[in-house]
Amino acid sequence: MGRTYFVEEGVGQYLTELSTKVKPYVTGLLIGQCSLQRDYVIRAVRTPPKEQQQEENMGPPKLASLDEEWITTHASQVSRMLPGGLLVLGVFMIATPELAKDGQNALRKLIFSVEKSLTKRRLWKPAEEDVSDRATLQICSATKKVVCRTYDVQDPKSSAKPADWKYQSALTASWLALGCTVNVNIHIPLLATSPNHDLEKNTKNGLNRWSKQIEDSVFLINGQVKDDDTELLEGQKKLKGNTQSSTQFSDVKVLTQLCQGSSPRSTATVQVCSGSINLRGAVKCRAYIHNSKPKVKEAVQALKRDIINTLSDRCEILFEDLILNEGPQKKNVEREYHVLPQRLFVPVAGSSVMLSDYKFGDEAAGEIQERFVEMLDQPVQAEDIHIAEDIST
C-alpha cells in the first residue's frame, strides 16, 4: 500500500492554472504535513523564474537544463516561512508530453537534493516515528494526467512507490493551532583560539546546545502536563459542522530544566575566551496540527521544532544581511548590538493556517509583500501582515 496525500482543492486549481502557461516545463514545491496515517498538501508553489531563463528558452526544450541549485535554494527560503508542523514534503513538475519520459528521473534527483539541503540546516534531531517518504508529482500539460510517487529520502537507493493523490475541500478548516512565547537568554562564549570570522559557526554551536535544552523541556498545554500518547483533544469538545476557519488554539508554556544530565556529578571545563555572543529577547512560536486524532507528542514536537527553527533561521538571516551590507571583514569592536529580524504571520487564503516571515526594523510592508509573491506566489495585503513580536537582540 502506498501513501495517500489529501490535497487542498485550491492546490488543484493552482496546478491547473500553471499547466495552461507551461512552456516547456515548470517545477515547484509541495507544502504540507506528514503523519503516520496520512499526509496533507495545503499549498503548491512554483519555482520563481530566473532572469536569464528567457534567453535559454530559445533552444530545444531539455530537462537537463533544470537548475537544481536554484530549486534547492528556493526550498530553503520557503522552509523558513513555514510555522511548526509544516514542511516541504515534495516537488512537482508540469511538463509537455515530449519531456514526460525524463520527468521522473529529474524529479527523483530533485527530491533528494531538496531534502539534503533542508536537513543540513536543521538543528533538531529527527524522531524515530518521523515519516521519511517525500512526494514527487508529475502532470502532463497536454493530457492533465497526474502521476504521484514517493521516495524514502533516508535511503539513497530508494525506488519509486505509487501514491494516491486525493483532493478535499476545506482541508485545514478545523486544524489545531498551538502557540507560545519563549524567553531567550543564550550566552555563547567565543574561544580565544577561534578566529573572529567563526562568529557564525560559534553561534550555531551555541544554538545546538540550547536546542537540546528545548528538546528536554516540559510543555504545559492550556496549563496541563499531558501524556505523550494521549489525544490532544481529549477532554475538549470538538467543533463540528463548521467548515469556516474554526481553529482551536492551545496556549503552551515551555518550562526549561535548570540542571541538565541525570548524573549528580559534572565536570567543568576551563577555556580561555576572547568574548561572547548573547542572544536575548522573547520569540513567538506557532505550530499547526491536523485534526485526525492528533497525539500530544505530535503537537509538542511540531512546536519544539518551530522554537528551534525560528531562532536559527533569524541568526542565519542576520549573518546573510551582515555579509551583504558590511562584507566578511569585521572590525574589532568592543561591543556591538544587532537586532534580529522580527517574526510576522500572514493568513493563507482559504485556510486557517498562517505562514510566517521575518522583517528587519527598516523593512517596508512592500518588501514583505514582494517576498511573498516571489517565494510563495501569493499576493498579500499590507493590513494582513501581523507582526508578532517586539524587537530582540
From TrEMBL:
Q: Which GO terms describe its cellular component?
A: endomembrane system; membrane
The main location class comes to: membrane
Q: Identify the keywords attached in UniProt to this record, alphabetized.
A: Membrane, Transmembrane, Transmembrane helix
Any one Pfam family match given in the protein's UniProt record, by short name: ODR4-like
Q: Could you give a single Gene Ontology term from the biological process aspect? A: intracellular protein localization
Which cellular compartments is it found in? Membrane
Record InterPro entries: ODR-4-like
Q: Which family does it belong to?
A: Belongs to the ODR-4 family.
Biological role stated in the UniProt entry: May play a role in the trafficking of a subset of G-protein coupled receptors.
Give the protein's recorded name.
Protein odr-4 homolog
Q: What is the species of this protein? A: Menura novaehollandiae (superb lyrebird)
Its taxonomic placement starts with: Eukaryota, Metazoa, Chordata, Craniata, Vertebrata
